[in-house]
C-alpha cells in the first residue's frame, strides 16, 4: 500500500511539472491528474467502507477473541432461584471465570438489555452532572448539597444495578452479594429523592408539620426498604413469588409515599395557570415512577408472550428505562427548584441543616451496610449447610 502511494505521488509530481512547463494547458496531464485524484478518492472511500465493515464485525471479533465463552442455556439448566418468570432461554451458565461474565457484556443473553439500560443511564447522568457543575457551586454552596446527593445516589443505584445483572449470575453467593448491593443502591436513592423533595419542593404548611421528623423518617424507611428487598431475595428459593414481591414492594412503596409527599402536595395545589417550570417535570417523574412500579410488580409482556421476550421486551427492561426517565426528570425538576425557589428554601431551612441531612445520608448508608452484612451472613450459613448436606 505504501509503495503504491509513493508511485502515485511521483506520477502526480511529474505530471504537474510537465503541465507547468507547457503553461498548465496540457489536456493529457490534466487527464492524468484527474485520474490520480479519482484513484486516491476512491481508495480513501474504500478505506472508510472497510472501517465500517470492521465495526459491524466487532461482535464477531469479540467472540473470536474469547472462543472459550460458552453459549447460553435454558431455564431448566440453572437453579430455581436464578430463573425469571416466563423467561425460558438466554441464561448464562454458572461457575465460569470472571472474564466470561465481564465479556458477556457484549454477548446476547437475557440480561444484556438490563445491563445496558443502566449503563447508558449512568453515562447520561454523568453528562448531566458535568453540565450542572458549570453553573452550580457544589462545594461552596450548602444549599446545593441535596441536589448533589440526588445525583450521586442516582449514579450509585445505576452502577450497582448494572453490576448485579452483569455479575450476579456467577454463583448463588455472588447472586446474593451483588443484588444486596443493588438494594443498597435503591435505598440510598430513596433517601436522595427524599432530601431534594423536602429541601426544594416542600411548601411552608407541610414543612411546619414535618420539619423535625421528615428526614429521620426517610432514613428509617430507606433502611427498611433495603431490609425488605434483601429478605425477599434471601428467601427467593423457598417463598412463593407473590410473598417475595410483597417483601420488596411494600417497604419501597411506603418510602416512596413518604419521600414524595412534598411533591404530591405541590402538584395538587398548583393551578394550570401557575408559572412554575418545574411542575411539568415533577409530574413527569411521578408518572414515570408509577409506570415503572407497575412493570416491576407485574411481568405483563412475558406472561402474554412466554418465551418471546427472553432477549428484549421483558417487563424488567421496561422498568429500567422508565426508572431512568423518572430519575432524569427528578434531577431536572430539582435543579429548577434549586434555582427558582432559593428565597423560599433559604428561609425554611436553617443554617447547617444541609450538613445535617448529609450526615443522615451517611447514616443511611451505614444502616443499609449493616442490613446487608446481617443478611449476607444468614445467606452464607444456608449455603454452607447445603454444601455440607450434599
Automatic annotation (TrEMBL):
Keywords carried by this UniProt record: Membrane, Metal-binding, Transmembrane, Transmembrane helix, Zinc
Membrane topology, as annotated: Multi-pass membrane protein
GO CC terms in record: plasma membrane
Compartments where located: Membrane
Tree of life domain: Eukaryota
Alphabetized GO MF terms: metal ion binding; nuclear steroid receptor activity; steroid binding
TM stretches of this protein: 113-133, 145-167, 179-201, 213-235, 278-298, 355-376
Primary location recorded for the protein, binned into one broad class: membrane
Binding-site positions, Zn(2+): 165, 316, 320
Family, similarity comment: Belongs to the ADIPOR family.
Protein name: Progestin and adipoQ receptor family member VII, a
Amino acid at each position: 500500500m505504501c509503495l503504491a502511494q509513493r508511485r502515485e505521488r511521483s506520477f502526480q509530481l511529474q505530471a504537474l511539472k510537465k503541465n507547468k512547463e507547457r503553461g498548465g494547458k496540457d489536456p493529457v496531464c490534466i487527464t492524468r491528474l484527474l485520474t490520480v485524484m479519482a484513484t486516491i478518492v476512491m481508495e480513501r472511500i474504500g478505506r472508510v467502507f472497510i472501517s465500517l465493515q470492521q465495526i459491524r464485525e466487532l461482535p464477531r471479533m469479540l467472540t473470536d477473541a474469547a472462543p472459550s465463552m460458552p453459549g447460553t442455556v435454558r431455564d431448566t439448566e440453572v437453579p430455581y432461584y436464578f430463573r425469571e418468570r416466563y423467561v425460558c432461554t438466554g441464561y448464562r451458565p454458572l461457575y465460569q471465570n470472571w472474564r466470561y461474565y465481564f465479556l458477556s457484556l457484549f454477548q446476547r443473553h437475557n440480561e444484556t438489555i438490563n445491563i445496558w439500560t443502566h449503563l447508558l443511564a449512568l453515562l447520561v447522568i454523568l453528562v448531566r452532572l458535568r453540565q450542572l457543575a458549570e453553573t452550580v457551586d457544589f462545594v461552596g454552596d450548602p444549599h446545593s448539597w441535596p441536589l448533589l446527593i440526588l445525583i450521586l445516589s442516582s449514579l450509585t443505584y445505576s452502577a450497582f444495578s448494572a453490576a448485579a445483572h452483569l455479575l450476579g449470575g456467577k454463583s448463588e453467593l455472588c447472586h446474593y452479594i451483588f443484588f444486596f448491593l443493588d438494594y443498597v443502591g435503591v435505598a440510598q436513592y430513596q433517601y436522595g429523592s427524599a432530601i431534594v423533595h423536602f429541601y426544594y419542593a416542600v411548601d411552608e404548611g407541610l414543612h411546619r408539620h414535618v420539619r423535625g421528623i421528615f428526614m429521620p423518617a426517610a432514613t428509617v424507611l430507606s433502611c427498611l426498604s433495603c431490609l425488605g428487598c434483601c429478605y425477599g431475595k434471601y428467601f427467593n428459593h423457598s417463598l412463593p413469588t407473590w410473598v417475595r414481591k410483597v417483601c420488596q414492594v411494600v417497604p419501597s412503596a411506603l418510602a416512596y409515599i413518604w419521600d414524595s409527599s412534598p411533591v404530591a402536595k405541590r402538584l395538587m395545589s398548583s393551578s394550570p395557570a401557575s408559572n412554575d417550570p418545574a411542575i411539568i417535570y415533577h409530574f413527569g417523574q411521578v408518572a414515570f415512577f408509577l409506570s415503572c412500579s407497575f412493570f416491576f410488580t407485574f411481568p405483563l409482556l412475558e406472561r402474554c408472550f412466554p418465551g418471546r421476550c427472553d432477549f428484549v421486551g421483558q417487563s424488567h427492561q421496561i422498568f429500567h428505562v422508565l426508572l431512568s426517565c423518572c430519575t432524569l426528570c427528578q434531577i431536572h425538576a430539582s435543579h429548577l427548584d434549586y434555582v427558582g425557589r432559593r428565597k423560599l428554601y433559604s428561609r425554611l431551612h436553617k443554617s447547617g441543616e444541609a450538613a445535617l441531612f448529609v450526615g443522615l445520608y451517611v447514616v443511611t448508608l451505614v444502616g443499609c451496610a449493616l442490613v446487608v452484612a446481617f443478611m449476607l451472613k444468614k445467606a452464607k450459613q444456608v449455603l454452607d449447610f447445603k454444601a455440607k448436606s450434599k
